[in-house]
Design brief:
Elements: H1 4-12, H2 18-26, H3 33-42, E1 46-51, E2 65-69, E3 73-79, E4 84-89, E5 92-97, H4 98-104, E6 105-113, H5 123-154, H6 161-184, H7 190-196, H8 203-209, E7 214-215, E8 219-220, H9 221-238, H10 243-267, H11 273-292, H12 306-330
Antiparallel strand pairs: 1-6, 2-3, 2-6, 3-4, 4-5, 7-8
């Protein structure tokens, strides 16, 4: 989510890049009018702080400007003739009557006066680097899609509708558990926040903070989930003949879904929407295995066949866990 500095620069129509602006904002020791003034000055923007003892004069101040509330700064973007204040708070557009706004308004504002020459330091270089970063994401997605397509074709999975459904469920599982992983790392993601709010506001956060969100305190269930769906997808695409083995492993996961729903409903009385979706995907995966006919080949599985599969899951789980711990240690 962009910082308030990035949002303010957008409102001021000052050329900048989100990455550099967000880094500049986080470099402030603490959020203050003085800190904002120094940051704006580095962009070539003059500013002025005002203390409005008479709150009725707020409507006379030209927007946009920063307003200090009791608990945070907001960006006032417009004050309509009928006295309604439109503003940005934590990246969200909000609006309320000026009387309601004034209840939390401290009376302190910061005006900014950009000029045509106002711009981010090293803007061209930062924009080039930001474009390169976006290009890398596009290349990553394209390469991933090509690998998926190649595996899909080489494994001749398109002949089996159940296998096609299985690939779709696995990809959905990777996406959902990826959002859960971001939540576990306390990384803000608007898409994850919107999905989590479907069943209960902040429900995902409460569940993931609970001790039961980890496997014996060693691995988080989000790590287990993203490992399970990603490795299952790779095995399915590279070794489609292993589908019966994957069906058995999927069946072994199903009892966990009952425990997870029971625990959320009766123990902590909190719903994690992403967790519930993950449980649903495990059952959809089970249905896809039935549809594909994978269970017909279960009788030919040898116990030795499980060794490389379990090793693949274990290796990836350990790698994901070490990566997660590294990210947490750096944050």
């Amino acid at each position: 989510m962009p910082t308030i500095l990035s949002d303010f620069l957008n409102e001021l129509q000052v050329p900048h890049t989100a990455g550099a602006s967000d880094r500049a904002f986080h470099s402030m020791p603490f959020t203050s009018l003085f800190g904002f003034s120094r940051l704006l000055a580095s962009y070539g923007i003059d500013s002025r702080a005002l203390d409005l003892t008479d709150r009725t004069k707020l409507a006379d101040v030209p927007a946009p400007f920063l307003a200090r509330m009791k608990d945070a700064f907001v960006i006032v973007t417009d004050i309509s003739p009928d006295g309604r204040v439109s503003y940005l708070a934590f990246g969200e557009k909000r609006s309320q009557p000026i009387d309601s706004f004034n209840r939390d308004f401290t009376g302190t504002i910061l005006q900014a006066f950009p000029t045509p020459d106002s711009s981010e330091p090293d803007y061209r270089r930062n924009r080039l680097m930001e474009g390169a970063a976006k290009a890398k994401k596009v290349v990553l997605w394209v390469c991933g899609a090509l690998l998926l397509l190649c595996g899909f074709i080489s494994g001749r999975l398109w002949h089996n509708p159940g296998a096609v459904a299985l690939v779709a469920v696995d990809i959905a599982g990777i996406m959902v558990t990826w959002l859960l992983t971001l939540k576990s790392l306390a990384i803000k993601n608007s898409r994850a926040d919107r999905i989590c709010a479907v069943l209960q506001e902040h429900g995902c956060d409460h569940v993931l903070e609970n001790k039961a969100s980890t496997f014996f305190g060693i691995f988080s269930w989000s790590e287990v989930g993203i490992t399970y769906f990603s490795v299952s997808t790779l095995i399915l695409l590279l070794f489609p003949q292993s589908m019966p083995l994957l069906a058995v492993l999927n069946a072994c996961c199903l009892p966990f879904t009952f425990w997870s729903i029971w625990y959320q409903r009766f123990r902590i009385h909190t719903w994690c929407t992403l967790c519930v979706i993950t449980q649903g995907l495990l059952w959809l995966q089970f249905g896809a295995y039935l549809w594909s006919g994978a269970w017909q080949g279960v009788g030919g599985i040898c116990l030795l066949n499980f060794i490389p599969a379990v090793a693949a899951y274990g290796f990836n789980l350990m790698a994901v866990n070490r990566l997660m711990n590294y990210i947490k240690s750096r944050s």
